[in-house]
Amino acid sequence: MTRILLTGGSGFIAAHVLEALLAQGHSVVTSVRSETKAHMLRDTFPGVDKDKLDFVQVADIAQEGAFDEVVKSDPPFEWVIHTASPFHLNVRNPQKDLLDPAIIGTTGILKAIKKNAPSVKRVVITSSFAAIFSPQAANRPEHTYSEKDWNPITAEEAIQDPLSGYRASKTFAETAAWDFVEKEKPNFTVSTMNPPMVFGPIHPRLQTLDTLNTSNQRIRDLMMGKMADEMPTGGVKIWVDVRDLALAHIRAAERPEAAGKRFFVTAGYYSYRELADAIHELLPDVKIAAKGGEFPTEYFKYDNSQTTQVLGINFRSLKDMVRDTVPTLTAIGA
Fold it and tell me: Considering the entire predicted model, what is its pTM?
């Protein structure tokens, strides 16, 4: 049994990481923004003893020193999995609402671990394909994206609009983490997860139709007939099942060979048309546009071999993901 600190436990990805950790018998303390979030998690995982699942409140991860006391534990933590970071585009101030929480939250927890938690040996951080992808280069059909790529976004571009703010928040936070490791030479190693679109089942007690993660909103909209007349053409066309991503986080902490590496965690390509067809098989009465949503004729390539080889992830299919996701969205009114 390993003692683990998981930040942002009520988030879409974190809740699946938490579920997988508990299933493996680990002892987890997870940070939440409020007591309400802690109650929701207790209801989601009923019957789990306090020594296996406990909570600590961190109202604002952008506050200096927010994690200084959180990282102290008896028994002491061995791993930290840091998922807490905003991903929503309904923001007024990209700097305050996106950039600060992501960057200060990441550097803050690394500083706190080095200062107050010498027992921690592995840190895994949820980054994003947004820190790899270069929007300025569009689809780049000749290019193969991998962990070697970095988003070249600038500080000036970051505050132009919410989407740029989100992409920059992930890029700058991850860069800050690697810079910290290089300069501070801590006793722990860092690994980062860089997923693209993250689809998959939700925990109905933790989400509503209005608070769904951004990726799953596409499935919600298809289920609710919001694409009956027209299918979108934009957006990133690679994806991963949240359960595979959760497992990748854990394996990155378990496996020494994962230390010091980024992981481009993707199952591969998808299209709106494929999503629609898979949903229509389950919900034949849903109205979906007859045309559109096909995969582009030219698109970038990807290399996920580091994830499959080092972490040993065997990715679920899109159809299996949709089969498991639709009932959980139906449960909250989709």
Answer: 0.96
